[in-house]
Each structure stands twice: as structure tokens, then as C-alpha cells.
């Protein structure tokens, strides 16, 4: 009886372990999965208004805006490139450390496939700059 | 005397899974550092290298703890170490998302793997506590038997 419960417990934990490993591998490879495109498209309609309403001459803000637009259009690669560009520009700039951390958070969220979080962190980064 | 075997096996398995999660996070940080290095963002690369080392170390510590728990017998030391280290790692994580930690500062994103590892660490702390309680109880029973 006890052996059976141990076996089922171990089986459950092994399943979790396999799911975790496969999740890691899949999330690394699935930059252009259709599901994420669908997610981005769904956020597209709700977030377009906030994302693009502010225009700025600041090149960092422009990069972040480009990233937000790209993410909304389901183009994660371009979004990532624009965020990296913004991060590069933000590096070492005093007083903009918080914005840099927000851009990093947006990149991490994008990597995780969480486009909503990526956009919201990118928006926060913009707010910290302007 | 209570049988601690189910707790020993499940705790060891949880610690192995936590170790795997840390290795996955370390791999992700390493990939990021390569990307940032290609872009010439040097400050960030150093931070990512620190994080990669930290996560690899944490993963190894969890695997070692799993081995110690499996070989623990009637000793409470491996369980105390597991509870202490797991609670410490959880505290560092909370600090990194709130007040900030040295080198890294404050991180704003809470990822899926982060949530999974923190839940498992909380379970590891609880299981360690139960194991310590059972072992101490068996000591008391032996003493007065």
C-alpha cells in the first residue's frame, strides 16, 4: 500500500519534471509559434490605443514604441531587436536604471511568451524615460 | 515510529526538480548573455554571468541536498539544511523583486519557472519540517520506551 503511494508520488513528480524540461526546450524554440501570434493579435485590438498614442523624438522611446508595435503585430523577433536596441541605448545612463530594468523585464516576458506583460513593461519603461 | 520514506522520496524528487529548474534558468541567462555580448552591452553581460553562476550553484546545491536527504537515515541535519537553504533562496527571490539585491538590483518580471520553483521550495520547507518533527518524535518515543 505504502509502496504504491510512493510509486504514484514519484510518477507524478517525474511527470512534472518531464513537463518542465520539455517546456524549457519548447519555449526556447518557439519564437514564432502560431499560438503566440494569436495571443499577440488578441492584445492588438486592446492595446493599440495606449501603445502608439505618444510619439517622441527621443530615440530610446522610439525604439520602445517600435518594439511595442512589433509585438502587437506578432513579430516577436523585431520586438526583441527593438528592445535590445533600447537597452543598448539605456546602458550606463544615470537616472534611467529603472527604465533599463523595465526593458529587461519586457525582454524576459517576451522570451516567456507573455506578450501582455512584455507590452506593459515596455510601456512602464517609456513612462520612466519621459 | 513513523515511516519517513514517503517524505524522503518525495522531498528528494522535489529537490531534483528544483535543481533542474535552476539549470534551465541558468541556461536561459547564458543564452541572454551571449546575445547581449554580441550587441556589446557589457554591463548587462557581467550581470548575466553572475546570475548564470548563481543559478548553476543553486541547482548543484539542490542536487547535493537531494542526495543527502536520501542518505539521511535518522539524522535531521539534511532536513535542516534543506529547509534553511530553500527558505534562503525564497527570501533572496522576494528581495530581488522588491528591495533589490547586490549586483542585480531589482528585477520586475516574475516568470513561470520562478513561480514553479518557489512553490516547490515552499513544499520542500514543509516536508523538511514534517520529517524533522517525525524524527524528533521517534527520539522521544525511544527515550521513554
Q: What labels would you give this structure?
A:
heterodimer, A: 130 residues, mainly alpha, Four Helix Bundle (Hemerythrin (Met), subunit A), 2 domains, elongated, B: 145 residues, 4 helices, 81% helix
Write a brief structural summary.
The complex is a heterodimer of chains A (130) and B (145). By secondary structure, chain A is mainly alpha-helical.
Indicate the topology.
The complex is a heterodimer of chains A (130) and B (145).
Chain A: H1 2-29, H2 34-52, H3 59-72, H4 76-90, H5 97-111, H6 115-129
Chain B: H1 5-39, H2 42-70, H3 77-97, H4 112-144
Helix pairs in contact in B: 1-2, 1-4, 2-3, 3-4
Number of strands of chain A: 0
DSSP strand tally of chain B: 0
Query: Which fold name is given in CATH as the topology of the largest domain in chain A?
Result: Four Helix Bundle (Hemerythrin (Met), subunit A)
CATH architecture identity of the largest domain in chain A: Up-down Bundle
Give the N-to-C terminal Cα separation of chain A: 65 Å
Report low-confidence residues of chain A grouped into runs of 5 or more.
Answer: 25-53
Write a structural description.
The complex is a heterodimer of chains A (130) and B (145). Chain A is built from six helices and no strands. With 130 residues, chain A is mostly helical. Chain A has two domains: 30 residues; 98 residues, Up-down Bundle (Four Helix Bundle (Hemerythrin (Met), subunit A)), CATH 1.20.120. Chain A starts with a helix and ends with a helix. Helix content of chain B is 81%, strand content 0%. Chain B is an all-alpha fold. The N and C termini of chain B lie close together (11 Å). Chain B has one domain. The radius of gyration of chain B is 18 Å and the shape is elongated. The interface between A and B is medium-sized, with 33 and 33 residues.
